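Final report, closing paragraph on structural work. Over the funding period we assembled a curated collection of sequence-structure pairs, and we close with a single example.
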Amino acid sequence: MKKVFQRAAAILLSAGMMIGISLPSYATTIDRSYTYNYDYWGDVQDSPDMYSVCKVFTSTELGLEKKLNSPQGIYVKDNLIYILDTGNNRILVFERTSRETIKLVKEIDSFKGADPDTFSSPTDIAISDEGNIFIADKGNGRILKLDKDYNYLMEFKKPVDNSLDKDIVFQPTKIAIDTAERVYCVAVGINKGLIKYEADGTFNGFVGATRVVFDFKMYLMKKIATQEQLNKMESFVPTEYDNLYMDKEGFIYACTGNVEAEDLKAGDADSVRRINPLGNDILIRNGVYYDGDFPVYGDLYMGNGGGYNGPSRFADVTVFDNDSYVCLDRNRGRLFGYDDQGRMIFVFGGAGNMDGYFRNPLGLEHMDYDLIVVDQLDCTITLFTLTEYGQLIFDAMDQFDNGEYAKSGKSWKEVMKYNGNYDLAYIGLGRAYLRQKSYGEAMDYFKLKYDDENYSKAYKKYRKEWVEDHIMIIVIVLLALFLIPLGIGRVKFLKYQIEISDAFKYKN
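Its predicted structure, as stored:
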């Protein structure tokens, strides 16, 4: 209905301009609150805030003598927060001591045992379970491995591979490590996927290259083009990743902002992928709306406004322990949360100078369900904490995962009191009823939000249960339907035999 009103308003505005009538201005962009979501029909639904700004930390707030300069990365280990202060060639380690307090515990700008023993534009860090520290030392073209006391152990250099341009400068930007200390790396100009190194530094190939968008018309043109024209044409190559995150199960979430709106809408490109050890994308995308599958690429509407245009461009991703994940959009400064089925949980944020808004956000991490965002341009660290509404949503999800279905259903009902338009609450309550074998109630909630797949599951269970409960009646009815006509036929046959017998006696 909102779309109908928008089109009608646009027509009236055009007509008014043609006949010289002054009409009130009409905003052609989709109005959004700070926090919103999309419903089954793809319409924007305002929402209570799931997160609130707990604190915005500036260099002054952090007590830094040398101010932050172009920070580009963040890493969380237990209660420690590592900030990659790229412009100052250092790594800052903070400890979170309370809900809204972090204090500087260490500044790392050098280490022992290598030449050079300083960093040049460090952009990422990862720490293994053994305490070994891996650093993407971008300016020096290496990935460093240090021990817990910051002593040099080894480094990972440019991979030796015939498919790589020999003149390309190795610039690692983002890294992740698994439990065996294998290193996965994103590097500037390398679009063959994630670079994989074994723990001993051996290059072990590329993992999880993005899908190539193939244009048949361009392919035909290349067949007949001259060499000079070919040099100017676009190549069919995979897209570079922007960032990656290793979840607790060892799967890699990789995101990219180098995508086009047309490819996203056509399903020919992905903004975020979940990569298994074989390099395959196993991200679940079960969100559904009236026009098909619900996409996992941020904003559905990609119009121009406020100097921003095009699709959401994911600069980072982080994954909670319940397999929900959050993507950071550097284009419009928004955070998009999805559950483990690819259904959107929330969207909040925006571009601007106020608390909770960003100018060029590049880093995202979490502590429990709290979110931390690093803004490169503002040189700030923003800490978001859950509101009561947000806590209820994650409680409901965790309770369901833990098998506490009655508690989950109760939590979803509380969520509905805050937001009666929240599709996930209805679906979540339906799933809770489904697990409690209350199939009729589950069907009602799935039907309200057009969840055909779960409705079918509930209906099959409901039908099976109904048949089992009414099996005697069903058997009696079936027998009656079979025996009554048989009995009537038998009676008619006997009556016919009697009539024939009487007629025979009378004749004789």
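The radius of gyration is 31 Å. Residues 1-30, 232-236 have pLDDT under 50 and may be disordered. We thank the funder for supporting this effort.
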